[in-house]
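re the bet — no i am not wrong, look at it urself. input seq straight from the record:
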Amino acid sequence: MDEVQFDEEGIKFRYLSNWKEQNKEMIGPNCIKALVKVVEGNPSTITVYKNDAGDAEAVAQIEEAFKESFEAQGWTIVESRILNLNGMPVYNIITSADEGGRTLENNTSALINDGNMYVFELMHFKEFPYAYNDYLAIMDSIEFE
């Protein structure tokens, strides 16, 4: 499977070519990449956002705000922790919600670099986890310019 290189907005990463582009303007003004993949009739999305990090200089400073935001939206927090990704600290939160008898899972990872916060979000049904490995490969390929 071929890989596609994303190199914009101060960040680089690779993703597999079987992920299709979505219109990022439809997602929101801070969306820099929006991808979708359907396997066995089950959609998965990967969305990447770039925001001003404000006063946050470390991912530990954003953990509580992320937790509060997901809880306010009705998500159940499955896991929340800070990881090391190729020498970079990454805040990772996994949340879930019941959706028609299936579990909708949201994997969100946030990195801070040069005053910017980059947020990667995988949304998929837990019962069809095919997209998770693709998401991990994207995260492993991240480089900052």
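see?? The first helix runs from residue 24 to 27. told u. also Strands lie at 3-8, 11-16, 20-21, 31-39, 42-52, 76-85, 88-99, 102-113, 116-125, 143-144. so pay up
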